[in-house]
Write a structure and sequence with these properties.
Two copies of one chain form a homodimer. Chain A contains 15 helices and nine strands. By secondary structure, chain A is an alpha/beta fold. In chain A, the strands form two sheets. In chain A, strands 3-2-1-4-5-6 form a six-stranded parallel β-sheet. Chain A starts with a strand and ends with a helix. Chains A, B: Residues 164-282 form the 3-hydroxyisobutyrate dehydrogenase-like NAD-binding domain.
């Protein structure tokens, strides 16, 4: 497991590739918009023109692209499954559908390939610093073989079971975030409209039972009126839709998630698809103005 | 500020009174059901029979009772306001209505009394260990005078502004908790129905952006099928209703809080009013069974 074909050289992919290079792996890279990937040539990465090129003569193929339909495209249409040599390990690190991960694993096995789903949490900073949490689904054997690569890219690495379990774990993580986001955004609106200093308030309560990562990391950005993306609204909507879809497949009730997804869709319609998730506050504030008038 | 009349000797009150005694204050106590308070006689607390008795010959009156209607009863009907001597500081530490706190402060000022609203977070353990967060509203002068008492009972003490601001801060805290509860309960249901080990999952993600106090402290109790109350469902419903009421007065939108309150009311109807708030999981699991069948 020395050579890697890496598909998807956006902000996340670039950080991950650099950490693979630092750990001594040989990396070949592919990006749909080739120009965006060329910056990695300075790190000794060969940037190739096609999916067929990037999956040839490598031990492992890693992909981190945008949406499940992009994953389907590269695996089934552009030909990862058709062109990878038998024995290659295929790792999709896109946050995607558990059902699609199951289907890829099945198709891979039929071709003597081994597939893992391994979405991450920790954002672009985690990708850059090699501190991602990597949530893995698939068989034990390829997981063990791929572990040195995961360790180059992440800090907290966990195999949760067979194909799709990595995706399911990631979607569960996003469900908890949905609750934190709605709770802290409504909290902040209540605090500011009550005439209470929000920074003093957070300092007083943050170590108690209302404490959360969102409270400590995102709410201060809202107070500073900074809505730039750590995590894009449009990507969060994608994740929540995937979680709702999988929840429906399993027949489970997630009314909080359904509500939060609806609110974020309304936020995107207001022009905030490319804002950070903390912009939810703006939707609630907007609605409150409307109800007062 | 040496002598305290303390009204409400339940689990919270007992812990707080013991810490006042340890710090050297003289305490006189009153409880509606007198017998429950008698245990404090061993700590040198005189237990008296009436509100009139407990507010007489003291510098400070502290109350922590059940519901806003109980606060109204002791202040306006049982006669805290009528019987306290001019100059007495009146501190209500019940989680109650900001509007009621404002009304009490106004009536107190008209009688040359000084009122503070000072609800707490940290639960019975915080009360016992003197580690409560105390969220205060009222004037600066009585706050400064009462500070040694607050320091005997709590760790994080903050004055947020005039009358009612302590109550508003506490309700805002509960709004953030509502979001955490719905998010983590739905997350856990998704995890378990996906066939993922929930303890392994929490260990992997808890320091990331899904992290929260609820995730680390309440979800492990659900995994252990422990629904005993740290914080009662019935009290959380009370707090959420107060927050919604105040939110409506201010004209603000809190759809997540409204949903979570509805779900907890349904949980109480299933017989869980006296369970801990982590029992929300049971309602969602129940609904999911129903939707599968």
């Amino acid at each position: 497991m020395k050579t890697v074909g890496f598909i998807g050289l956006g902000v996340m992919g670039q950080g991950m590739v650099r950490n693979l290079r630092k750990a001594g792996f040989t990396v070949k890279g592919y990006n749909r918009t080739k120009e965006k990937g060329l910056v990695l040539e300075a790190d000794g990465v060969e940037i190739v023109d096609t999916i067929q090129d990037v999956v040839t003569d490598v031990d492992v193929v890693i992909s981190i692209v945008g949406y499940p339909q992009d994953v389907e495209q590269i695996y089934f249409e552009d030909g990862i499954l058709d062109h990878a040599a038998p024995g290659t390990i295929l790792i999709d690190m896109t946050t995607s559908s558990p059902a699609l991960a199951e289907r890829i694993a099945q198709e891979a096995a039929a071709r003597d390939l081994q597939a893992l789903d391994a979405p991450v949490t920790g954002g672009d900073l985690g990708a850059k610093n090699g501190t991602l949490a990597i949530l893995v689904g698939g068989e034990e054997a390829p997981f063990v073989q791929a572990k040195p690569l995961f360790e180059a890219m992440g800090k907290s690495i966990s195999l949760f079971g067979g194909p799709g379990k990595g995706q399911s774990a990631k979607l569960a993580n996003q469900i908890a975030i949905a609750g934190s986001m709605i709770g802290t955004a409504e909290m902040l609106l209540f605090v500011t409209r009550s005439g209470i200093d929000p920074t003093q308030f957070i300092e007083t309560i943050k170590s108690g039972s209302a404490g959360s990562w969102s409270l400590e990391n995102l709410i201060p950005r809202v107070i500073a009126e900074n809505y730039s993306p750590g995590f894009f609204v449009k990507h969060f909507i994608k994740d929540m839709r995937l979680a709702l879809e999988r929840g429906a497949e399993m027949g489970i009730a997630t009314p909080g998630l359904a509500l939060t997804k609806d609110l974020y869709e309304q936020l995107a319609e207001l022009g905030h698809a490319d804002s950070g998730t903390q912009a939810l506050y703006l939707l609630l504030a907007e609605r409150s103005r409307a109800s007062v008038e």
